[in-house]
Specification:
Blueprint lengths: L5 H5 L8 E12 L2 E13 L4 E5 L6 H8 L7 E6 L2 E2 L5 H11 E4 L11 H11 L5 H13 L15 H13 L5 E5 L7 H16 L5 E4 L3 H6 L2 E6 L2 E5 L1 H5 L2
Parallel strand pairs: 3-8, 3-9, 6-7, 7-8
Antiparallel strand pairs: 1-2, 1-4, 4-5, 9-10
Helix pairs in contact: 4-5, 4-6, 5-6, 6-7
This protein binds adenosine-5'-diphosphate and magnesium ion (MG).
Length: 247
């Protein structure tokens, strides 16, 4: 396969292993001092799995998720997603790949303040050149599912944190991505709001059999997970269900 062909390089195929991370290392340079955050990390994930990523603050969870989404590049090692080696393609190809195949949910929502709720959800479809009436109706359906159909013309700063995150969830799912990456999606929400947001996420992801890797300490999500891994010392440790529920 030629990696110089953006069509070939960015359209993920469904056969083969879904996600394979091999010997991944990330070293940040702070002035003269190198800081190794990921240190030869290996990881595989199958289609349809819900995997929870644990690890104390600063252990490298966000770094790891950013390398899988292709938002950042590794110091060494490979991330292969449906047969495409993300470390071997250009930044532009990675951007196209991410838009088409990955749905991202961040701790800080990351909605675009100058776009309405509906426009935020439609943007990834528009960028992918897939915005038509059917897709638009599907996006409105998603807004209904997250309980915000009546806010479609509001701007994000008019919404509460929980509402903004529900919009971000709809945005992450509207283009039907192969993989959803969520980075502590309730980290900025109070307990009650977090509970409601997690309930929606649970319903949209787990019940629909979508594939998700989520950094969270939410007990309900851990209870639903197919696997729980913990980032410690720059590598991933697989936890048994008993160990995971004791955390
Ligand atoms: N751009 C950066 N430059 C230097 N150090 C960074 C950078 N981003 C993250 N780090 C450091 O890498 C470590 C892991 O960070 P992060 O991946 O954000 O951890 P987590 O998401 O688990 O809290 C932390 O020590 C953090 O300070
Ligand atoms: Mg983080």
């Amino acid at each position: 396969m030629s990696h110089s062909d953006p069509q070939t390089a960015t359209h993920a195929k469904s056969e083969g292993s879904f996600l394979t991370v091999n010997d991944l290392t990330k070293v940040y340079q702070e002035g003269d001092i190198p800081r190794t955050v990921l240190n030869g990390l290996d990881f595989v994930m199958a289609e349809g799995e819900l995997v929870v990523l644990l690890g104390r603050s600063g252990s490298g969870k966000s770094t790891f998720l950013n390398l899988i989404s292709g938002m950042d590049t590794a110091t060494s090692g490979d991330v292969t997603f449906s047969g495409i080696n993300l470390t071997a393609i250009t930044e532009q190809e990675r951007t196209i790949f991410r838009r088409e195949n990955i749905g991202l949910i961040f701790q800080s929502f990351n909605l675009i303040s100058t776009l309405t709720v509906l426009e935020n959800i439609l943007l990834p479809l528009e960028l992918n050149g897939r915005l038509n009436e059917t897709q638009k109706n599907a996006a409105i359906d998603f807004l209904e599912e997250v309980g915000l159909a009546d806010r479609k013309d509001s701007y994000p700063d008019r919404l509460s944190g929980g509402e903004q995150q529900r919009v971000a969830i709809a945005r992450a799912l509207a283009h039907d991505p192969l993989l959803i990456l969520a980075d502590e999606p309730t980290g900025n929400l109070d307990y009650k709001t977090a509970e409601a947001v997690m309930g929606i996420l649970q319903q949209l992801i787990h019940d629909a059999g979508r594939t998700m890797l989520i950094a969270t300490h939410d007990r309900d999500i851990i209870a639903l997970a197919d696997r729980v891994v913990s980032l410690q010392g720059g590598v991933l440790i697989e936890l048994s269900p008993e160990e995971a529920s004791a955390r």
